[in-house]
Structures are given as structure tokens and as C-alpha cells.
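This part of the workshop introduces the protein records we will be handling. An example says more than a description, so a record of this kind follows.
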Amino acid sequence: MKTFEQDNPTDVVLYGGQYRDVLRPAVERALCRFVEGTPDQSDPRLCDGGQGNIPTAIITHSLAGYMLMDAMSDIYHPPATETVPDERSAAVKVGSYLDQIFMLANQLKILDLSTRTSEKQSSQVMERFRGTWDAVHSKQRDMGHDLSSHHMLAISDPNDILSWEITKREIKAPGITVANVYLGTTGEIFGLYRMPIWGLAANPFTVHTNYLQDDDVMDVVPCAMTGSAINRCTQ
């Protein structure tokens, strides 16, 4: 229990505080490298070169989904004193053909609390990212490119105490399909793999880190589902 607390929730606390200003530039530079560009040495929001015309799907785990949204919206909506031209924006290049986001064990709800300034304020980071995503796609449509609708899929284990669902109320935008899938990714407990014990108990501490090792999750991401049945991928 202590190891779990020290290895997992602490990251959320760090990113919710002032250390976000240290971590977010690293993600912004990583987005530039993701599109095969060269990050600017002085301003992490600027990206030279790179490709923006490749159909893209992104898989995130836990805090990483929030970090992605935060970095993209920060690039696309810089402070008033700065500008990021589209040709030097990794957010534009990543978002141009970003059609699918898979969020494993996402933490949007808890991290949005770190940005609130009033009780009635809605999801600030989600709203900024949604506006970024939609604006980038709108430019592509204006250029005559036929784009499919956006898809955001959250995969969670009911036993995972650090996972939240995504709701359509948070997205509030046409053209974005939102879905939640609940799978048992519990992993090893008492030496037995993927055990709820006779359907009665599960280990809530190992589950949060087991998504990328679970065969069901790895089949849902590339091969999807038909109704409630997982489409099994060939090797």
C-alpha cells in the first residue's frame, strides 16, 4: 500500500502544482519529436519541420492523457505576449489528422480540480484541448480534406482506484464520439494471473499499472469491439 501511494498519486500532486511548468515543456518537445520535427532550443512551444499529414491515434496511460491535452492546448493557446505560427506548432501537426485517443486509466477529473478557481467552473484543460482539437480539424476541413469524426475511448478497470470515466457532458462538442469500456485488467494476485478470486476480490493496487500488459486491452485498441464482444486480433 505504501509503495503504491509513493509511486502513483505523487505524480498527480506534482503535476497539479508548480512542477507542471517543468514537466509540460518536456511533453511539448516530445510532441515535436513525435512528428519528426526539431524542438526549438529556447521555446518548447516551437517546432521546426516535422510532418502533419499522417493519420494518427494516440494511446495514453493514467496522468499522460492529461499531460498530452495540457501540452497541446498550451502550444495552441500561448500567452498573449507569444505567438506560435501553425508551421511551427507541434499541436497543429499532431492534431491535424488525430482521429483517435485511447485513454487507459485516465485521470482527467481529478487533475481538473487543480485548475479550478470557482465551484461552478467546468473542465478547463478539457475545454482548451477540445477547442484546440476542433480548431485544427476545422482548418483541415476548410482545405477540402475529408476527416472522420473524432473518437475518444476510456478504458478502465472497476477495481482501479485511480481511474475515472469520461462523460459526454465534459466534451460538449459535436463530432466527438466518447465511450467508456470497463475491463478486468487486475493482473497477478496471490500468484494467479488476472484474478478476481472467484469473482469476489481483486487487487486494486497492481491493476493501475497492468493495462499495457493485458491482452484484452491490447485487442480493444487496434481491433475494437462489436457490441460488448472484443474483436480478437491475429498475431
Notes: The longest helix spans residues 124-142. Strands lie at 37-39, 47-49, 56-61, 98-104, 150-156, 176-182, 225-226, 229-230. The mean pLDDT is 82.
